[in-house]
Design goal:
There is one protein chain. The protein is α+β, with helices and mostly antiparallel strands and 704 residues long. It has three domains: 120 residues, no CATH class; 49 residues, no CATH class; 401 residues, YVTN repeat-like/Quinoprotein amine dehydrogenase (Methylamine Dehydrogenase, Chain H, 7 Propeller). Helices cover 19% and strands 27% of the residues. It has a five-stranded mixed sheet. A hairpin with a 4-residue loop joins strand 14 and strand 15.
Amino acid sequence: MSSSGSPRAAAAAGDRSGSQSPTAQSDAAYHPAREWLDAEEEEEEDEEDDDGQDMDYEQESEQSDEIGYFEEIEDEEDYEEAIGLFDNHSETGLRNITFEFAMERPDHDHSGEEGQEDRPRMIRGRATSTQILQLLRASGFRQILQSRIGGTWADDDDDDDDDDYGLPYGGLRHRRRQTERPREDIFPKVPSDVGTELMASGNYGSNTHYVDELKKRKKRLATKLMWRELGVEPMGAQRRAAQAMPQDMIPSSVADKIIHFDTRCYSGQFSDDGNFFFCCSQDFKVRMYDTSNPFEWKYYKTVDYPFGQWTITDATLSPDNKYLAYSSIRHLVCLAPTDPSDESDPVVLDFSNLRRNNPSRGYFRGISHFGIWSIRFSGDGREIVAGTGDRSVVVYDIETRQSILRLQKHEDDVNAVCFGDSSSPHILYSGSDDTTIRVWDRRSMGDGREAGAFVGHTEGLTYIDSKGDGRYVLSNGKDQLMKLWDLRKMITPSKLREIDINRYTTGYDYRWNTYSEEDYEPHPYDCSVVTFRGHSVLKTLIRCHFSPPGSTNSRYVYSGSEDGKVYVYNLDATLAGTIDVGRATLNTRPRDTDTFSAAYELRSGSSRVWKTCVRDASWHPSAPVLAATSWNGWGMGRGTCTLHTWNDSAAADEGDPPLGKCYNTKLEWHDEFNRYAEESRRVRSRPVRRPPFPEEEDIYDPEW
């Protein structure tokens, strides 16, 4: 840290007339707040000279440079350090700084007020030093404006609905915020009462007997095995005990294998029988692996999408595992055989080839080209349903090679689709950026209308997953919430038409902006059963799933997260565990020469930071194994697929092969990456000499 302050700060200090440069003060340490203190004193003197008259606030040009002092604070630790400086250095007078700002009230009418024609009515506000430092965060300035504008103007009668006062995202919801209740009361209660009932119902795993809870027994797997072998309980109790054994086996953060890709990975899933795994990446390839032994994978095959756009968006396996369908941001779906001996080119299915007869039953005569975001095979393997970028749901018949149904009731892109029942093609779900999930019953679609809808998310949907029982469905939303829905509680189409769904959303760009809890308002028509929160749904369409009945006893729901973890939740919305993929993969590949060009975030210095975003995760149906598919690496510009297994909290595994080793996409040992990772671990394990806390003359310099 430089004791004289940054050159930018010194220049800005010298530009302001009437103030002394901090570098010229011999006994005082430099801090940007000293300039703000001087400015505040000057403002008080000016106000005294004006005999207390109101004045326009015209110091934006000065403050714009001063706020720029902190633009390099990108790390949370640096932010907390800056906050600490304001809280701890009372000798510099920084603790109780309050900044005043003023704005003209736009609805004030000056006519008819004597002497007021040329003087606008001003609204003055205050911001603490901590709030000023929050400007460094993406949502800090937005929060200050919202708190001021929402508190002052929300109660005014304003018939001009188009005037959003410059608020981000249109400001529709923020002007309505009039409640003063604590923020924690806005979110649903945890643990959820409904979720607790579901956990006790038997549909989502088994609960421990109250006697076992009182005596604190049957906690570990070895104890459960002993009680099962003793066989002293009734047959029903023994069966329940056997089923309950795997439900506590949550995979650990330590990765058994780290499979490195040269491009970002978008999705990866096990087959229904667990013998097959596929992974889609941005190089328009889908790699397939034999996972009949879930702990020791074998490379199987690679298929291409020959004319893709941006990336492969989704893939789905046929129920018999013989065919893999995969899509891109085009109206064409590739259908490839999974047999490794079959090297034929994939069959191209044109989803814009729509059957044009009988338009009264939901068939449309005209169709334009579109991109596909999500696809799913039906339970009988005869059809594929797709969610598209032209706000439609398309059902494609593989035998006739035609789209037999096109449903277009959503108001925005359809990001996710699925079948409600694994054994029936009649019930469909579709999740859209218009914040709704539509329920379609193909047996009663004379006019192409939905059977009902789920409403409760306040931002767009990124993924939906069905439990396969025709009743429960799970969704992930850009409002950072995952929700569980019950088909019996959907709202009717007539009720949906009465709700203005655009009134309860901001439509913010989740790819570049963060989402603060201050941005959230509960949906007044929320019909979800349980709400889960803790993970972050940013950057990309992050996916969520029900845990399988075989390996987890259907006990959990889980989701990827932008912070590099997989979050596993109990049905009562409490957190059951996390799998830290970012920690497991940190520094496991060297920097490439083209790292900057591949980096997702092109901000200054982003390519020098290892970042992880878990986009998809898949739990093996019969073993305590989870595969996480991620954007990973320097600048989050590459991809990984990591294999995580349950190890009963063991710190290490002495078996072969060793854990945490790197492999290429064909599961070949990657010697270069493993050497780099080992060297990085040795460097991190050495004692670190941290710089001492700056002395008084070196309080803070953002370029340190």
